[in-house]
Each structure stands twice: as structure tokens, then as C-alpha cells.
Amino acid sequence: MTISKKIENIIAGSSFIRKMFEEGARLKAQYGADNVYDFSLGNPNVPPPEKFNEILRETVSTCGLDDHCYMPNTGYPMVCGSVADYLAKEQQAPVTAKDVIMTCGASGALNVALKAVLDPGDEVLTPIPCFVEYKFYADNHGGVLKTVATRPNFELDPDAIATAITAKTKVFLINSPNNPTGQVYSAESLENLAEILEQKGREFNRTIYLLSDEPYRKIVYDGVEVPSIFAAYPNSILGTSYSKDISIPGERIGFLAVNPAATYQKDLMAAMTVANRILGYVNAPALMQRVIACMQGLSVDIAEYARKRDLLCNGLAGFGYEFIKPPGTFYLFPRSPIPDDVEFVDALKEERILVVPGSGFNGPGYFRIAFCVSDDTIKNSMPGFERAINKFK
Ligand SMILES: Cc1ncc(COP(=O)(O)O)c(C=O)c1O
Known about the structure:
Elements: H1 5-12, H2 16-31, E1 37-38, H3 50-61, H4 77-91, E2 100-103, H5 105-117, E3 123-128, H6 134-140, E4 144-149, H7 158-164, E5 169-175, H8 187-204, E6 209-213, H9 229-232, E7 236-241, E8 254-258, H10 265-278, H11 286-293, H12 302-319, E9 331-332, H13 341-350, E10 353-354, E11 356-357, E12 367-370, H14 375-390
Bound molecules: pyridoxal-5'-phosphate.
């Protein structure tokens, strides 16, 4: 083999989501796209706000030569400033342009942050279930992903966290609203987490960073608010994107912000600026930077996702599926009616319903339904969901 052993292993263990995607393509070719209910991918299906198209057209029509050139690795100062003004209000912290780095999406942001802080063997601790890619991101930069259990409702479990932190823990990585559970961590649980990180940091004589992955922050329901991590913990770093809340994941635009109160704020910013360059991103896409500078605070119509969530939850609850109604994201994470989630996902596949086993997210015994699909897909899938659970009653 000419490719690296590590990549060979990654390909061999290729994520459930991708496998499901390929299976979906096969079923769609066989039965027609309308007869396959594909809930496997978190690809937003609510259109971007109308303003996005207006601003995009205007930005393109006013582009000059300079607008296609290299720029500071952190991004256009004007764009960082616009993001910072919004963040200062959102995070209740004195964020300015010098605290912000524009990145290629949230995954670019996380990779830049991890590259900046990890030494070989450092541990990144994350609550499970969690986003599948985290283990690769930690490994990309010499780190090791370690996991810690959450409570039965997928909230943070302070006792488990205190036990799981070791002398090697450098980063505590959270994602709220959470993919795959839809849970949003409360202000109280962030306060408890902050206390533990402070205390363990003193015990092990090192700074433990709180890295918060927040691409679903604006996709919340029933008046739920996502608490500020900057207010909760000084050594915090926020990574996010406009992929989900503006429905532009292909445009690869997001940002990193370092808490102005962080102990080594300037060093962190210097390290991340260099990491953004040497990881090969160089800078975030220029056109999209200029567009999102004019879109601060906007989002897709969240009521659309709320309607889909209700359609799905009401239908599934009626058949006896058990789940927490997600306060955020466009994911539902029901308990599998049988212990083997992969077997149940196969039973759903028999009904031409594609979902992802919880095992793919370190959450065995559950499965993930991405409800960023048409209302018809949800409605037409209901008889299949009912037949599948009834097989195991
Ligand atoms: C929890 C989480 N983090 C990060 C990402 C990556 O987002 P982006 O496309 O902005 O890089 C995703 C995408 O699905 C996600 O669900």
C-alpha cells in the first residue's frame, strides 16, 4: 500500500454516515428518490435568508482587484470587527476584532484551535455522544480524544468529568446545542464545568481550555437560550460557522474567538493565526467573509425546523419511540427499541428509512434522525417507522 496506515484505517472504519449516504444513493436509484426517506445527513434544507442572496449579488458586483488578493491570516479587519461587535453582545464580553480569526467553517476553526494548543499526547476530553470527526481532529494535531459519559438526558455530568480529567487533559471540548442529541447545556452546568476546570487546572498546574463548538447556537426552540461560555470560564475559545444557521455549509465560512479574559490571550491569538496559515487554509474565503460581515445576527427561518421537529416528535411518540424533545439543532436522538442500534437501523433500512446508529457517535443504544428534510419526507416515513418498532414489540 502506498497510502499511510493511519489513513488506511480511517478509510476502513469509514463513518456510518458516509456508508448510509452510499446506501441511500443505491436505494434511491432502485426505488426513486421520493420513496427513500433519507435522514442520514445534517445538510440544511431551509433556504438561506433572502438577505443572503441580495448581499451576495451586491458584494460580487462591487468587487475590485484588491478583493481577490491575500489578506491578513486572521481575515479582513473590517469583518473581524463586525463579528466581534455581534459577539460582544452575544457573549456579554468585551470582544474586539483582535480576538477573532475568520476560518474555513467550524471544522477549520476546531483544527486551528487544536493545532495551536496541543502537544503530542495531550488529551482532548469530550462528553459523549459526540460529533464523529472529533477524534480525527485531535489526532491531526498529535492529541488523543478521550470521552466522558453524560447524564441520561445528555446533560453534562460533573462527577464523571471530575474523574475523567487527568494531568494530560489540555482541552475540554463541548458542542451545545449538541449533534447528535439536540441537548443544550444549561448555564448552571457550564458554571459547574468551569469550577471543575479551574480546580483541576490548579491541581495539575496547567491551563485547561474550554473549546466550544457552536454551529447550532441559533437553531433553538421554545425560547431556549444558549449560555455564554465567555461569561462562564475565562480560558475559553469559541469556534463556529454559518454552515447551519445560514444554510451555507459548502461556502466554508466560520470563525474562532478567544475570550479577551484568557490568561494567555495574545499567545493564543498568535498561535492560531499561524496555524490558520500553515494548515493550508491561509485565510477564510474572501467573498464569504465580506458577505457574512453584513449578516450578523441573521439566521434561516427557525420556525421551519420547529415545525419539522414537532411533526417528527409527535409521530414517533405516538408509535412508542422514546426520546428527549431536542431543545436545539435539527437532530433527534431516540432510544433504539432493541439494545443493538445497528440492527434496528437495518430494520429501518428495510422500510427505506435511512438514519445513523448511535454507535457512530459513541452513543450505542440510540440512533440519529437528521430532520433537515422536507415535510413530505417526514410524513411519508411515518408508516415505516411504525412498522419497524412493531417488529420488536
Ligand atoms: C458538531 C459539529 N461541529 C462541526 C461541524 C462542522 O461544521 P462546518 O461545516 O462549519 O465545518 C459539524 C457539521 O456537521 C457539526 O455537526
